[in-house]
Design goal:
single chain, nine-stranded mixed beta sheet, eleven-stranded parallel beta sheet, mainly beta, 1 helix, Pectate Lyase C-like
Length: 309
Amino acid sequence: MFESIGSPICMPTDPSRGIAPGGGKTFYVSGLDADDSSDDYEGTDPQYPLATLAAAIAKCTQRKHDYIFVQDIYQGDTAPVLINVRNMHIIALTEGNQLGGRGVFDGQAVDACFKTYGTGGSLELAGFRLGSLGEACIEIAETSWYNHIHHCAFGHFLPAQDGILAEGNIAMQSWIIDHNFFSESLTRDGIRVGTGLWSFINHNFFFVKAGIGINIDPLNTAGVGGSTPLGGILGNTFMALIGDTPAEGWAITISTTQALVAGNKAATNGQTGTNNPYLDGSSNGVATLLNGWADNFDGPALSAAPATA
């Protein structure tokens, strides 16, 4: 247009291609169309995408807010994909719904789909359907900060043991996990955090079958006491399968860590058992409970208190 009117300004066809909103680069990955993608490409043109997520991450720069848009994926990457670059945004293009589209990552190795590391904080991960032959879909291998996991579905053809797993004293620091679906195919817990909760788990749906929807400090290692809670479990929905008899604490179990737990709803889908879906192991007395519980519902009725209250 500018050339046609004699302007000295020569504009490229698409000035934004390859430039991310935060000033970093934009990369594209197509893990299914082998004829149209290659890790030898630069990857900044959607018509010439990279073939693997690992190659795209290797091109990202620390703290530059690079974006990786996954056009499609299945089993092209070798699991686990290591999240070791800070300020990345990895977005699967899911046709507007994480249960549809081609953002499916089934990790064939006996390992997680993604492993997050301390050098890989401030991650945004969205739009994936994840399954694994290993312990988790996302494993927190080192304490990392400020990650945001949203609009993903955990448990696919390959079930995985846990949706999100942080073992031992590895902390999930200041994460936000929201608007995800944790399916009944998971063989243990939806989210399993081995120590205190220092993050927010909000507005997710847990279809619980084998284990616990949200299981915080399962080995009772965090100890009692501490300061004001720095995290919360807010507004999640839990559903147990028809015919199951859920164990006590099947929706949310918290051991000794502190967390604000409010506005969650758990339904046993026709069961009439008396087991409370919420279990607080922080104390044996109402006056000394360390976790703040408010307005959590068991089916259509308001639960009077956690099981220990």
